[in-house]
Design goal:
The chain is built from ten helices and five strands; from the N terminus they run ααααααααββββαβα. By secondary structure, it is α+β, with helices and mostly antiparallel strands. The protein folds into two domains: 3-138, no CATH class; 160-276, Alpha-Beta Complex (Aspartate Aminotransferase, domain 1). It is globular. The two termini are 27 Å apart.
Length: 277
């Protein structure tokens, strides 16, 4: 995830089919996709640049800096993306405004990283062009079919309890097990919802988790994966994510160990940052 790929409207261009097609050079593999380096580097692809004088003249970096935010043009664009592509420009912009661009990029990486290969999932079709290219070859109009994250609903959760309670009892039991294991390993951590995922926070985000149709996604950051890669050989995992199958017991001891390691890591980072000030 790169700062220059976040458009003024809040679009994360690294998720765009045209950017990913260019990056993966899929036209050399028999496709005929339009390439785009991103809305910011390539202004002609920006949906709002021609219609918004402030953006067109470079007077604002993000739409939330405009007194008309959110304008009718942004609302229409946001509605289309929320309806079809499982993302919201307006929510992205509000997150950048409230938490800063660095935190937003970190959360986007967690949310959109392919759990199989570690590349980035495309928002326009729900596919990873690195490992799902054959699906796109078989159906070039593919649009978010197949397995979809069960938490990608038009619901805003205020607590982890609300998140867990939306699921059937058997999934609730697994999520509660996972939550209690994290609580036990990190009693000093704060619970919250971040990007509509249950999150534990201590000197920064420790871990996230989310329920999917056939697995539970666990996100201990790339450092957490790297430290325990030998113990994770039985599970599908990528740079920052792990899949725990729904039909298998959760490896609670391993999860607790990973959480404790993340606490040490975050404490070390916090201490280093404090000493620099």
């Amino acid at each position: 995830m790169e700062e220059e790929l976040i458009a003024p409207c809040g679009m994360n261009c690294s998720l765009c089919i045209s950017y990913q097609a260019m990056k993966e050079e899929i036209n050399k593999k028999g496709f005929k996709k339009t390439y785009c380096p991103g809305c910011l580097p390539q202004g002609k692809h920006c949906a709002l640049k021609k219609s918004c004088g402030l953006i067109g003249k470079g007077q604002i970096r993000f739409c939330f800096q405009c007194e008309d935010f959110p304008c009718s043009r942004l609302k229409a664009l946001d509605k289309r993306y929320r309806t079809k592509y499982h993302m919201s420009m307006q929510e992205n912009l509000e997150s950048i405004k409230d938490k800063g661009l660095e935190k937003f990029l970190e959360a986007e990486k967690v949310k959109w990283t392919c759990p199989v290969c570690g590349h980035i999932i495309c928002c326009h079709n729900g596919l990873c062009l690195h490992c799902d290219l054959e699906k796109l070859r078989q159906n070039k109009q593919y649009r978010w079919e197949g397995e979809e994250s069960m938490d990608k609903k038009a619901i805003k959760f205020e607590s982890i309890d609300e998140y867990i309670n939306q699921f059937p009892n058997e999934i609730q039991e697994k999520l509660t097990q996972l939550r209690e294991t994290i609580q036990s390993a990190a009693p000093q951590a704060q619970e919250k919802i971040s990007y509509q995922m249950p999150t534990f926070y201590f000197h920064g985000n420790l871990v996230h988790f989310a329920a999917y149709k056939n697995h539970i996604g666990f996100y201990p950051t790339p450092a957490g994966i790297e430290k325990f890669h030998k113990q994770l050989t039985a599970y599908k995992h990528a740079k920052g994510s792990i899949q725990f199958p729904m039909d298998e017991p959760l490896p609670l001891d391993l999860i607790a160990e990973m959480v404790r390691a993340r606490i040490v890591e975050n404490e070390r980072k916090a201490s280093y940052k404090k000493n620099k000030e």
